[in-house]
Amino acid sequence: xxxxxxxxxxxxxxxxxIPSRIKxxxxxxxALRMEKQRKPDKPEDFVxxxxxDSEEETPAQQHxxxxxxxxxxxxxxxxxxQAPEPRSVDPSYATRHMLTHDMFRETPVNLGNxxxxxxxQWLSDRQVVFGTKCNKLMVYDVRSRSLDAIPTLRPRxxxxxxxxxxxxxxxxxxxxxxxxxxxxxxxxxxxIYSLPTLDPVCVGEAHKDWILDMCWLDDEFLVTGSRxxxxxxxxxxxxxxxxxxxxxxxxxxxxxxxxxxxxxxRALTFNTKWGEIAALTLxxxxxxxxxSTFRQSLxxxxxxxxxxxxxxxxxxxxxxxxxxxxxxxxxxxTLQSVxxxxxxxxxxxxxxxxxxGNMLTIGTGLGLLMFYDLRAGKYLESNIHSSKTVxxxxxxxxxxxxxxxxxxxxxxxxxxxxTHCYDDSGTRIFTAGGPLPAPLIGNYAGIWQ
Length: 449
What we know:
six-stranded antiparallel beta sheet; globular
């Protein structure tokens, strides 16, 4: 939660320096160790052990532990008076507390006749940007509840036809939050906008099929993955000075790499700790590229995975892969399976995944948002309702009339959560999606706060 290294003002030790805390700490560690040593009904495929089984801390470690307050009130007071004390707070604590105490409430967002939201990001504490299957790039204002359309960028070549306008599938913001990368009007091309004005910067031309995902390596370079089984490395040009008429450049990639042993790149993620780009392909492989050389280093066939959709990475380097009926955790060093997180609901396809600290958030095809605690090795449990896991159930959206879906005239349905994202504070979640069957047209979006 929060840690504050207290310093004595008048006495020799701070007020939190209570020797009995060491005994309580050892008792909790002993109980946790005994819990882990109990043999489960089904042994895990991958088990981690502590470096040492010793319960004794050195005198220096004991002094550090006793001088550290884990009280959130002490953290807030120290921050208010700007005390020269080392302090830190777990960024996922607020999210975890609100989830376990059933504090999140949904505010539905009316999207009119848009079709399926595929990707989203928070622009600021009051604006969310998202892309849809009907090729609309929209900005939603949380306070005024208004929607603004951002013009998509036109290609340089003659219009290839409606088959290349299949939606905006990916949307990413660079680390300094100065550039926004997404799909152009032609779904095979990259579009980059400057932030916060959303002025057009450039259109990238390289892929022959739809761009399904992208990731920034730093503030300047990003990688796109496409259904043409290729990865392209781009260097974003500097944002042009403000002009009366919007104008954008056309750029080519720095390098293009064929994803060997892969067919149709579905998802991408950048592993910052190990400097690697992980790519997921629809033929059941995960591929690793070096970010420094942009060369493919290895590929691995995933065990019995169907309907691979999403890929996320934790700060420590664990990969989470969303499949048809479970979420697979991989060790980034060996690409070996660490754990298979089975879904608690039958027919629950995993459509989106993200990490926030040691908590994995899973968006499903049944309109449910689930939360998995990596440290505890189980789904997050409620503190209000005993023996009940925490889930957020999306409100029902609408299906619009379609030629291939007769009889679905304004029929309510259970939406699939294709995308979800947290704001910087972790106290608000934007969830969006639409109907799971491809022929159906509809949408869903909501703000949880």
